[in-house]
Write a structure and sequence with these properties.
The protein is of the alpha/beta class. The protein has 12 helices and 13 strands. It has helices spanning 65-69, 86-89, 96-100, 115-123, 126-129, 146-158, 173-177, 195-202, 207-219, 238-251, 266-272, 285-297; strands at 8-18, 26-31, 52-55, 75-78, 81-84, 106-109, 111-114, 134-139, 162-167, 185-189, 223-230, 255-260, 301-304. The protein has a 9-stranded mixed sheet. The protein has a two-stranded antiparallel sheet with strand order 3-6. Helix 7 (173-177) links the parallel strand 9 (162-167) and strand 10. The longest helix has 14 residues, at 238-251. It is globular. The mean pLDDT is 95. Bound molecules: iron/sulfur cluster (2 copies). One iron/sulfur cluster (SF4) is lined by residues 53, 70, 72, 74-75, 84, 88-89, 92, 95-97.
């Protein structure tokens, strides 16, 4: 389906009552699509840029009605059950497989929404935001749909709704710059300062991310908090943490939120048809406190998990 990217886009969830993703109580809007492939991604259903079928083998009775329903021949079967050729599904607008599946084993993930419809939905949440709450665009990577993100943020800003984003920064600078007048705070992710290591775990080097971080820190007038997942054996060594301290100080910013690796998204990998990579370890509390101490002794405020004060 051809869409006007400035007036609408693809999202896969809207969640209310969030108190960890920005000031006050917030509504989170999850945009589809991401340019990274982080091994530990907790929202694998947000990686593809298009609406897609998710498959729950535990609900499947294997009558294969979905196979005959799909006129595009996008479904095949193997020992796991039903499998999708998602490169075909990306152009599907009918989702006959979902309609035909009487057990709910297949569901559609992601849908198109106009910026206007989204604003109407967002506004309904005003009552619970309180004084300083609002919306946060997340994903996926929200800035991978830059025109849509800009329109949503502009609409909210002009309607006096507080705006924030969570971004990995792996997008063109122009996609960030166009939003700056409509954003009030930013969580900016850095996974690793070494580009080769970054590529090993995310499928992409970090040059663009680092370059954008420096420019953003200089140009953005609001609060920008760096964020780093702490992944044992990947980015938690003392040398890397000290390099992060230096990097953050050079940008002029002074805050980081560290997020211990978790495996809460593991079950979703099966639904998407991806293999969960179990290669990294979860850091212990002592290690996190040690990392926090290193940041704080460099003059950088460090918040663990959901402890960021807003
Ligand atoms: S239609 Fe649903 S229950 Fe039947 S085989 Fe397909 S996924 Fe399984
Ligand atoms: S989403 Fe569309 S193309 Fe993909 S399996 Fe279902 S009906 Fe076929």
């Amino acid at each position: 389906m051809e869409i006007d990217k400035s007036t609408g886009g693809y999202i896969f969830d809207i969640q209310g009552f969030s108190v960890h993703d920005g000031p006050g109580c917030r509504t989170l809007i999850f945009l589809k699509g991401c340019s990274l492939r982080c091994s530990w991604c907790s929202n694998p259903e947000g990686i593809n840029f298009f609406p897609e079928p998710l498959y729950n083998a535990e609900k499947c009775i294997y009558d294969k009605l979905c196979v005959s329903a799909c006129k595009k021949n996008a479904i095949y079967t193997d020992e796991v059950g039903i499998r999708f050729r998602k490169e075909i599904c990306r152009d599907c607008s009918t989702f006959e497989c979902v309609k035909e599946c009487c057990t709910g084993a297949i569901r559609k993930c992601g849908y198109y929404i106009s910026a206007e419809q989204l604003l109407d939905k967002i506004k309904r949440d005003r009552q619970y935001w309180g004084g300083n709450g609002g919306i946060t665009l997340t994903g996926g990577e929200p800035l991978c749909q830059p025109e849509f993100a800009e329109t949503v943020l502009r609409n909210c800003f002009e309607t006096l709704i507080h705006t924030g984003i969570e971004t990995c920064g792996n997008v063109k600078w122009a996609s960030i710059e166009s939003l700056l007048d409509f954003i009030e705070w930013i969580f900016y992710d850095i996974k690793h300062l070494d580009s080769d290591k970054h590529k090993e775990a995310t499928s992409s080097g970090n040059e663009l991310i680092i370059e954008n971080a420096v420019r953003l820190a200089e140009k953005f007038k609001g609060r920008m908090i760096f964020r780093m997942p702490i992944v044992s054996g990947f980015n938690d060594d003392i040398e890397h943490i000290k390099n992060m301290c230096e990097f953050i100080k050079e940008t002029g910013r002074r805050e980081i939120n560290i997020l211990p690796l978790h495996r809460l998204g593991r079950e979703k990998y099966k639904l998407v048809g991806l293999k969960f990579k179990d290669e990294f370890k979860i850091p212990g509390k002592e290690e996190l406190l040690n990392i926090k101490n290193i940041f704080e002794s460099s003059g950088i405020k460090c918040f663990i998990g959901s402890d960021t004060p807003f």
